[in-house]
Every structure is written in structure tokens, then in C-alpha cells.
Amino acid sequence: MKVMKALPEIRLEAARAALDARPLEKRVGLIALATDHTSEVDFRRMVANERIGVYVARIPYANPTTPENLRKMQPSLSAGAALILPDEALDAICYSCTSASVVIGDAEIEQAIRAAKPGVPVVTPPMAGMRGLSAFGVKRISILTPYTVETSRPMAAYFAAHGFDIQSFTCLGFEDDREMARIKPASLIEMARKVTHPQADALFVSCTALRAALAVPGMEEAIGRPVVTSNQASAWNCLRLCGDGTPRPEFGRLWTKPLAA
Fold first, then answer.
1. Which of 107, 145, 146, 234 is most buried when burial is the number of CB atoms within 10 A of its CB?
2. Are 103 and 45 contained in the same domain?
3. Domain span at residue 116?
4. Is the pTM higher than 0.90?
5. Does position 260 have pLDDT exceeding 90, yes or no?
């Protein structure tokens, strides 16, 4: 039988350790779907750094990706936001689902998140996409989504309602966001070349599940025009809200642009 050594006396230090105002200077919240393979990885790569932290909550979601299933996430948004650093302020928070954002509506999402995090700047991927396209001053666009026709219709309506002239809209017919995450970035480059209309001034690639942010430089080279994607634009928008204006062209032309007031 082992003989346990006597434990040392534990001494309480009288002097209090100095505290920073925050562990990191800026805080970005991310509300991701339970099934999401991509958003958190992209935000860690593009947003997190020595002064900006990314803090993630996941909310319930069940495939297939239909407008009905997407709308079911709305009641979970307040609870998800409340789980991110409770009782502490955030500098930005992103609800990382493009298709659900256009189905639920930006205003409704802002209201639900601010019920838990009053005053926080809220970012949705279509909102960030619209701001990204506007940073280039373009109106004529092509859109590529991995969704079905049914799930793509609200996306077309969203961008048309915000004054964009949709020259072409192509969807890939996927119903499961986990399969969307498995689409090879290289195939998105070839798809961009195929679906971008000659009269379009830019391409918007929708869906936070897609690994499209990895393919932006290749897509821009393939079509010779700006490419804005859901995660790339959301990360850019959140960084700019944190006061980080560093140009990072490795993430596409958008990352050389400021966020308009």
C-alpha cells in the first residue's frame, strides 16, 4: 500500500494579481448550426488573432435544408446568443446561416439576438454579402448557391429587394448542409467560371456550410471579377466592426475594402 506524502501548506497570497480590462481586446460572437462544419473553422482562421477572440454557440438544426426547417431556428436565437459570454458585451455577433437569414429576416434576427445581447451589432451572411458587394459599387451580379430551387427562391428575392440586378442565379440541388460542406473548393472555382454571367460585375456565393472562402482567390482569377462569399463577407464585416481594417488580399479583393458607414 502506497504511503501518501504530506501535502504542502497552501498559502493565500495577500497581494491581488493585476487584471486586464478583458482577456482579449475585442469579442466576436458566432451562432452556428449544430450541423455546421465550416463557419467556426473559417472564423478561427480569418477573425481570431492576438487581440480578437471568437466565441461560439451552437443551436439545434435538422436537415433537410428547406425554408420550413430553416425558419424553425428562430426561437433558438436568443438562447444561443445568451450562452456567449453571459452578462458580458460583444463587439459583434454573427448568426451564421445565409439561407435561414433570408427566410427569417434580418430585422427579426437582430431583435432575437438583442433580446439577449442588447445593443450588439448583428451580422447575418446575406447582410454582409450585400455590404461586400456594395463595397465594390456593383449592382449587376450572379449568384451561386448549393441549395434546391425552393430554398434558393428567398435568396433571389432578398438581393432583388435590396436593389441588385441578378443577371444569373444557379443552384446545385443539395438538401443536406453536411454534404454542402464536402463540396471541394476546387470544384467551386470551376463552377464560378461556368455560372458567372458575362454582364455580371461580381459573383455572390451563398452558404456558410461551403468551404468557399478557401476558393475566393481562385474564383476571382477564374472570372476576372470580385467574388463575395457568405463566410468571407461575414468575417470581413465582423473584423471591420472591431476596428480592424488590415488589408488581407489572400482572402479576396473584398478584404482590401473598408466597411461603408
1. 234
2. yes
3. 26-124+233-249
4. yes
5. no
